Amino acid sequence: MFLFSACDKDNEELPSVPQYVLTSIEYSLEEGDGVQSELVDGMSRVIDNGALSEMTYTISDEEDLKNESLFQSDDVNAFLLAEGDSVKVSTPSEIMNGKIFYTKKYLYADTVQYCDPDYVSKSSISVPGNTRLTCKWKQRWDVMTVTYVVTFKDKVTGSQKQSKGKWKGRIYRGGDGTFHYEDIKE
């Protein structure tokens, strides 16, 4: 690592430009924080089996489901100090009995970050001959809001700065399907 310092015309050393790195992030539950569950209509599917024999169709959770992570702060330093530093940090994955649990890491950024859900369920269903199967899916999501404090350290001086904000996440928890069979009219 190289450190450069400059001198002005009077041979006095000029201060170095701070270079901050994110060193830690801590989460807590404050007023208004917590988790809310939401049930969202997923895509309906219609499978027509026009053959005389039974067919098996594999049903899985919605394609392209993505968990979301967003850091927000009114403190201008919260993201300015992290600029150019692509750091992934642990983010809440579950809140139970006032305790926060972590499993995923997302980029610390003030834009929405996406990642695949922890699991996607698949099941097979039989569709008799000359039958239409209509599948309707309900997605279960947990929407979380948690307070965070992020700490930055100046690589040159060792001084620290902290910023406080809110982390918002939307985590996929699975889905429930309903199935309706009807005869295909010829």
Walk me through this protein's architecture.
This protein has 186 residues and is an all-beta fold. The chain has a domain at 20-38 and 58-127 and 141-174. 2% of the residues lie in helices and 59% in strands. It contains 1 helix and 11 strands; from the N terminus they run βββββαββββββ. Strands 1, 2, 3, 5, 8, 10 and 11 form a 7-stranded antiparallel beta sheet that branches. β6 and β7 (99-107) form a beta hairpin. The longest helix is centred in the middle third of the chain and has 4 residues, at 77-80. The radius of gyration is 25 Å and the shape is elongated. The protein starts with 19 loop residues before the first strand and ends with a strand.
Structural category: mainly beta
**Total strand count, please?**
11
- Tally the helices: what do you get? 1
Give Rg in angstroms.
Answer: 25 Å
What coarse outline follows from CA principal-axis ratios?
elongated
Uncertain segments are 1-8
Strand content: over 45%
Write down the secondary-structure element order: EEEEEHEEEEEE
**Percent range for helical residues?**
under 10%
Arithmetic mean pLDDT: 86
What's the main sheet like? 7 strands, antiparallel
Report the span from N to C terminus.
77 Å
